[in-house]
Amino acid sequence: MEPPARPGANATMHDALIFTPDDVDLSRSPLRRGIAEPTYVLGAFNPGFTRLPNGNLLLMVRIAEALAEPVRDGQVHAIRWTPAGYVLDDWPLTDVDLTDPRQFELKGRRHRILALTSLSWLLPVELDPSGEHIVAVHYDAAIEPAATYQDYGVEDARITRVGDTWYMTTCSVGAERHCTTLHTSRDGLHYRLEGIVLDHQNKDMILFEGLVADRFMALTRPLGEVYFAYPPDSPWVGGPSINFAASPDALHWKPLDAPGLRARKGSTSAMKIGGGTQPILTPNGWMMIYHGVEARESVGIYRSFWALLDRDDPSRILRVEDEVPLLEANPALTAHIAHQMYLPTPVVFSTGLVTDGDDYLIASGEADLACRITRLPKSRFV
Description:
The protein is mainly beta. The chain has a single domain (14-381), classed as Glycosyl hydrolase domain, family 43 (Tachylectin-2, Chain A), CATH 2.115.10. It is 0% helix and 47% strand. The chain is built from no helices and 27 strands. The chain has strands spanning 14-19, 39-51, 57-67, 71-72, 75-82, 85-92, 96-97, 104-106, 114-115, 118-127, 134-137, 153-162, 165-173, 178-185, 192-198, 202-207, 216-222, 243-247, 254-255, 272-275, 280-282, 285-294, 301-309, 317-321, 348-356, 359-366, 370-377. The strands form 7 sheets. Strands 20, 21, 22, 23 and 24 form a 5-stranded antiparallel β-sheet that branches. Strands 1-27-26-25 form a 4-stranded antiparallel β-sheet, with no helix packed on it. The radius of gyration is 20 Å and the shape is globular. One of its GO terms (molecular function) is glycosyltransferase activity. It comes from Diploscapter pachys.
């Protein structure tokens, strides 16, 4: 459903924060069923993004809700979902590393084992058709953990509409596995959990907005403990990359044999890359926005770039713009909430794309803190 072009809509870039931690009413949080301790919104960010049947826009916002006082009495506390409600686990401070403000690591383990002082759930936020005003916040349609493989939360929704169905992938975090899960909807607002579709640490899965040769297609980004070296004269850098997978039904996926998008030597995204927005079909092919990370401190600098894929064979990459970023973090946008910042490096993480006349609207997480909407003319991608 594409609204008509608006006069002058493609004249200039428009950029603003649309939803911040201060916009969340924690009295309506699902964590109230079990957690009496004070909490706060660590971040309201990385939203899935789509257009609803009524023409309005929907952000499916990740709410990272954290304990206001995770450390007390010589212990650090982790929030965990159970079928009976939310509980706190206690870990002695002598057994953990608290260097990262988002998590803590258990010391002395043969594998890297993490726990979280926050838990993420998903909040649908409805915007007007232009993405400039909040229409409603749908706490009654919030998505929270519903299975033991989600006991540390549900993160980073990506929404794609194919035909009359909305497909939403999420990252489910739990002690059992760190996996990709699928939700479906018939109205774009209310979603049903379909279960696990990709296993351990296959992050940033995003379905193409349309079928390719009668098959669903998706971007994936499997992570591992080790990567193998390319030859010294190769243009590529080993590490996390964007791969492709195909499915007959959006539930059962086979990775494509061909390589996908890979980090290139000399680029500002040489540390790692990963999917961002759902690929959409343009006259020139499938256009997608992805994130690239430059190594810096513990987190790295996240920027958004874009690529163009062949319409009939998306594994054939027609163009990659990895030199000049499409989007970078903008400190001016977060100046009024700078006291809530907790990451040491600039981060913008684009997560959804919607057509609006002569423009694209891009939804992003800014600083792992808030939701950003950017309006760019389609001519920017020609």
